[in-house]
Amino acid sequence: MAKTEIKKYKNYIGGEWIKSSSNEWFDNVNPADTTDIIGRFPASNAEDVNAAVQAAKDAATRWRRTPAPKRAELLFSLAQILAKNKDAFTQQMTREMGKVLKEAGGDVQEAIDCTYYTAGEGRRLHGFTTPAEMPNKFAMCVRQPVGLCGLITPFNFPMAIPSWKLIPALVCGNTVVLKSGEDVPLSSLNLVKACEEAGIPKGVVNLVNGFSEPGAALVDHHDVRLISFTGSTTTGRIIAERCAQDNKIVSLEMGGKNAIIVMDDADVDNAVEGSLWGAFGTSGQRCTASSRLVVHKKIYKKFCEKLVEKVKQLRVGNGLDAKTEVGPVIHEDAMQKILGYIHIGKDIDKATLAVGGNRLTKGDMKKGWFIEPTVFTDVKPGMRIEQEEIFGPVTCVIPFSTLDEAIDIVNGVNYGLSSAIYTQDVNNAFYAMQELYTGICYVNSATIGAEVHLPFGGTKGTGNGHREAGTQVLDIFSEWKALYIDYSGKLQKAQIDAVEI
Ligand code: UN1
Predict the structure, then answer these.
(1) Residues 316, 176: one domain?
(2) Ligand 1 site-directed mutation target among 113, 257, 456, most atoms within 8 Å of CB
(3) Is the whole model's pTM more than 0.85, yes or no?
(4) Among the atoms of ligand 1, which is closest to the Cα of residue 456?
(5) Are residues 279 and 246 in the same domain?
(6) 120 lines ligand 1 (CB under 6 A)
(7) Which of 196, 409, 417, 501 has the smallest set of CB atoms within 10 Å of its CB?
(8) Whose CA is nearest to atom 11 of ligand 1?
């Protein structure tokens, strides 16, 4: 029987679908079943990036001069196209990324929400006016586009994260080269194809697939004015250093080591449910994952028992099966790294492995990268599994006695993305909201589940001060221009000429 040929996908440069000048390809593999090849994608090089940057440069003036409400109209059409294709995009995302269908649907929905919400900014993009020091003089501030933006995206939110970058870049009037995550190129391609269908002009959005070579070429390209990156803290730091050579704007969204505090007055069942969702949703492969559960000593035993019981019941398997609750991790290297951390937890940190800890290979699972949902208990602040980002289905439970101690534990890592507290006491809740040094903080829910109209980002090793989503993202993708209009008909010197009262 003739084997069905694996579909080849292309880069999108200057409105054309073209293969890489390298003529090399890589396979997009299903992490739940590595015999399932979703497609072949161009393994692009610096030459492809140069072509994409040139196309984005050529399109820049026309796009910048297109009134923002008109740009936004195209983005509203884009949102409709994404919504129309939600089911197909969801299926394809689960197949290439592994997360369960419900979560993949949430990911596509987040891209739709982001597109509708941010397109609305096309009729706002507010600046401000302010009085000038001198009579007969007017002062105001407007946003101007940054120019050419390079977007580098990860695997864990294959459509949501590209949309967080792409849509605000476009509404602000920038042109874009997107380097898709090499493990999930189809979801980026679906988003870019939808841009084409929505009528976004040629060259405004360009897509280059591949590994680090095109990523590095984008970061180093002199004509790129901004790099927006989501990924590891190590890579982010390298990108920041390289961007500094050229004074590029750089927005980084990196790791996390997020914690949930569970107070002794909390609704324990609710806290267990939240912890389960926060720790094992997306197989723990979220920067916002609840990888630490900081639990009051008075309820610690009860909490651990209930949590372990629930973890044992989680159904691990192929995300395409509607019954599955936890899918695979993204690839073999990720699996080995996570298993390595489990080994560190057991044998070096000497924490208690309460449940899980192994690779799963039963039946069809041997074809993919599955790890048992894993909980360490009796974890102490400072242990490696308590400090370092694992990015997998592993969480650790840390006992504490006072809220101040719990807050110190939460803040005692080199990350600051998301935090949470379960409590019924309003004083505890407000005190924690004030003291937790993270970009996002939840009360009575887990550390995951950010919505697109609020700023997203974190402190310390998580970011470099920028926030995506909300209206705050506009501060990444536009620059302020201060405008002074003197209609006095004479020279007026600010700070020097005295104004008669
Ligand atoms: C990420 O973890 O990389 O808040 C993004 C959440 C999602 C986005 C997560 N809306 O968990």
Answers:
(1) no
(2) 456
(3) yes
(4) 4
(5) no
(6) no
(7) 501
(8) 448
**Does the beta carbon of 260 lie inside 6 Å of ligand 1?**
no
SS (H, E, C) 290-343: EEEEEEEHHHHHHHHHHHHHHHHHCCECCCCCCCCCECCCCCHHHHHHHHHHHH
Considering the domain architecture, whether residues 122 and 190 belong to the same structural domain is answered as yes
Atom of ligand 1 nearest to the CA of 289: 2
Pocket lining: 71 vs ligand 1, CB cutoff 6 Å: no
Query: What's the chain's average pLDDT?
Result: 97
Residue 421: which CATH number?
3.40.309.10
User: Is residue 472 domain-resident?
Assistant: yes
Query: What's the CA-to-centroid distance between 289 and ligand 1, angstroms?
Result: 8
User: Same structural domain for residues 177 and 299?
Assistant: no
- Banded model confidence at residue 3, pLDDT cuts 50, 70, 90: low
User: Catalytic annotation on 287?
Assistant: yes
- How many CA within 13 A on the CB side of residue 14? 12
Catalytic residue, from 253, 386, 389, 468: name it.
253
Task: Write the CATH number for 172.
Answer: 3.40.605.10
Distance in angstroms (rounded) separating the CA atoms of residues 214 and 43: 9
| pLDDT for residue 2 is more than 60 | no
Amino acid 443: pLDDT: 98
Backbone angles phi, psi at 107, to 5 degrees: -65, -45
Range of the domain at 470: 11-254+463-482
Tally of domains in the chain: 2
491 CA distance to ligand 1 centroid (A)? 53
